[in-house]
Design brief:
Elements (H helix, E strand, L loop, with lengths): L3 H10 L5 H4 L2 H15 L13 H18 L1 E3 L5 E2 L3 H9 L4 E4 L6 E4 L10 E5 L4 E2 L2 H12 L5 E3 L2 E2 L1 E2 L2 E2 L5 H20 L7 E3 L6 H4 L13 E4 L7 E2 L1 H13 L3 E5 L10 H15 L5 E6 L11 H20 L4 E5 L10 H14 L5 E3 L19 H14 L4 H12 L15 H4 E2 L4 E2 L1 H18 L5
Helix pairs in contact: 3-4, 3-10, 4-10, 4-11, 6-7, 6-13, 10-11, 12-13, 12-14, 12-16
C-alpha cells in the first residue's frame, strides 16, 4: 500500500494538469473507449446482472490499466497522483481477507466471500445517508433497524436540529455529527445490542466535523468509518485524505466507497464501468482499507425506462463484480432500499431486485434499510426503517448461494412485472407514519402489507420458504 505520507507528497509534487485538460476527450474519454475495445467490454442488453466472469476479469484489467496510465487528479492542488503497477498489485494483495468489529456478544467477523458461497453475507444495514429531521426520529429510525437481525449498523444523517437545517462547514454540522454519534450508540443499546459495531460515514462530510464522532458515547475503536471520494470521478480531495489521516491515528479501518460514475460524462455503460473500477482500485491504495464498495452509476436522465435502468444498473453491477472477483479482500453491495416510500408494494419489489442482484458478488450487504419520496418528489428525509432491512434479510435467507444466471433471471422477472412501476414510484409513508413511535413496531397496515407482498414475491420468483 502507499503510505498516507507518500500520497500527500504526490498530491503536491505530481504533474500539474488543469481540470479541463485532465477531463478532456483526448485524455479521458477516448482512452476509455480504446480500453473498452481492447479488452472486449460490451454490454449485453439482456443482462441486468452480468453473467460473464471472463468479461468481469477483463474489466478489472482495463480499470488497472486506466488507473496506471492516467492516475487520479487532486482537486485541491491540480496535481495528478500516479501509481505504478507494482504498487497497485501490492496494495490489492495486502487487503485483509477477514476482519472483526464490535464488542462482546455483538462482535462480528467479516470474511471474503466467493460467488455461490453458502455462507450468509454480513448485514451492515441502515440509513446510508438518508436524512432525519429531528434527533428523536434519528434515534428511533436507527433503533428500528438495529432491532432487526442485522450484524452491523449503518448510519443515516441528522439533517435538522430544532427545525433548522444543518449546513455543511458550520458549527451546526459539528454539533449534528457529535449528537448523531451518541444517538447511534443509544439506538443499538435500546435494541439490546450495546456492542454492535457501527459504520460512521454520513454524520459529517467536512473533516473537522467528522472528528466530532469521536466523543464519549460516540464512535469506538471497534467501529469503522467510510472514506468518500467526490465528484467528478478519478479525483482525490484533501478532505478525504484528512479523514483518512484521522482514521490511521485512531486505528479505525476504512470502508471505501466510490461515488459512482456520471454516466453521460464517461461515455456510456462500458466506459463508465472501466473508470469506476479504476476509482475503486485507486481507493484501495490507501493504508488501513478493509472494504471496497462500488457506487451506482448516475443515470442519463431519470431512469424512467427499462433500457435506461438496464444501462446504469449493468454498469455498477459489472464494476462491482470485477472488484469482487479480482481481489482476496472484502467487497460490499446494496441491500433492499428503494425509491418508493414506505408501506407500498413497490418498495418491496425494488428491494427484492437490489438484494437479488448483489447476492452473487458481495461479502457484506451495505445500506438497504431506507426508502425515498417517490418518483415525483424531492423528499428524501425520514425514510430509514427496520422493515426494509427485514425484507432484505428474509429474502437473502432464501437465495444465499444464488448463481449469476439465476440472479439475472430473477431480477428480470421482477423488473418486467406489472407491479414494478418504474418511473412511477409511489410516495408512500415516512418512518413516523409507518411506525408506532411508542412501541417501536410497524403499524398493522405496514406489517400486513409486508406479509402479503413477501408471499407474492416469493411465489413469483419460485422461492419456497425454508
Amino acid at each position: 500500500m502507499v503510505s498516507l505520507r507518500e500520497l500527500y507528497r504526490r498530491v503536491y509534487n505530481g504533474p500539474l494538469v488543469t481540470q479541463k485538460d485532465f477531463f478532456s476527450l483526448d485524455h479521458f474519454l477516448h482512452p476509455l473507449q480504446a480500453l473498452a475495445k481492447e479488452y472486449g467490454i460490451t454490454r449485453d442488453p439482456n443482462d441486468y446482472v452480468p453473467t460473464d466472469p471472463g468479461m468481469a476479469d477483463n474489466l478489472f484489467q482495463a480499470g488497472m490499466a486506466f488507473l496506471e496510465e492516467k492516475g487520479m487528479w487532486c482537486m485541491d492542488t491540480s496535481r495528478v497522483v500516479h501509481f505504478t503497477r507494482d504498487e497497485i498489485n501490492t496494495s490489492l494483495a495486502k487487503l485483509p481477507e477477514q476482519i472483526s468489529f464490535g464488542e462482546g456478544t455483538e462482535r462480528v467477523t467479516v470474511q471474503h466471500r466467493n460467488t455461490g458461497d453458502k455462507r450468509q453475507p454480513i448485514k451492515l444495514m441502515g440509513g446510508w445517508g438518508v436524512g432525519c429531521t429531528s434527533p428523536e426520529l434519528f434515534l428511533k429510525a436507527h433503533q428500528s433497524v438495529a432491532q432487526e437481525e442485522i450484524d452491523f449498523l449503518q448510519d443515516g444523517v441528522l439533517t435538522q436540529i430544532d427545525g433548522e437545517r444543518v449546513r455543511l462547514g458550520t458549527p451546526e454540522e459539528y454539533n449534528a455529527a457529535s449528537m448523531g454519534a451518541r444517538l447511534l450508540r443509544e439506538a443499538v443499546r435500546r435494541a439490546g445490542k450495546p456492542g454492535m459495531p457501527i459504520n460512521f460515514d454520513c454524520q459529517a462530510m467536512s473533516e473537522y466535523a467528522h472528528a466530532a464522532i469521536l466523543n464519549p458515547g460516540g464512535a469506538r475503536l471497534t467501529d469503522t468509518w467510510t472514506l468518500w471520494p467526490s465528484y467528478p470521478p478519478a479525483t482525490i480531495r484533501m478532505v478525504s485524505l484528512n479523514r483518512a489521516a484521522m482514521s490511521l491515528e485512531y486505528s479505525n479501518p476504512l470502508f471505501t466507497y466510490t461515488t459512482g460514475s456520471i454516466y453521460q460524462f464517461a461515455g456510456g455503460s462500458e466506459t463508465s464501468a472501466i473508470h469506476m473500477v479504476a476509482d475503486c482500485i485507486g481507493l484501495a491504495m490507501l493504508d488501513n482499507v478493509w472494504l471496497l464498495v462500488v457506487g451506482g452509476a448516475s443515470p442519463p436522465m431519470r431512469e424512467n425506462t427499462l433500457p435506461e435502468r438496464n444501462a446504469t444498473w449493468w454498469t455498477s453491477q459489472i464494476a462491482s463484480f470485477a472488484i469482487f472477483r479480482n481481489n482476496k479482500g472484502i467487497t460490499g453491495g446494496g441491500g433492499a432500499g428503494s425509491r418508493s416510500g414506505l408501506c407500498t408494494e413497490m418498495q418491496f419489489y425494488e428491494g427484492a431486485a437490489g438484494r437479488i442482484a448483489c447476492e452473487p458478488r458481495t461479502a457484506i450487504l451495505t445500506g438497504g434499510a431506507s426508502g425515498g419520496g417517490g418518483a415525483e418528489s424531492n423528499e428524501s428525509d425520514d425514510y430509514i426503517n427496520g422493515i426494509t432491512a427485514r425484507w432484505g434479510i428474509e429474502l437473502g435467507n432464501e437465495i444465499v448461494g444464488l448463481s449469476l444466471t439465476d440472479a439475472n433471471d430473477l431480477v428480470k422477472t421482477i423488473l418486467h412485472h406489472p407491479k414494478y412501476k418504474l418511473g412511477k414510484e409511489p410516495a408512500g409513508k415516512k418512518f413516523q407514519e409507518a411506525y408506532n413511535l411508542e412501541t417501536m413496531q410497524p403499524i398493522k397496515e405496514y406489517l400486513d402489507l409486508y406479509n402479503d407482498v413477501t408471499r407474492d414475491v416469493k411465489n413469483l420468483l419460485g422461492i419456497n420458504p425454508k
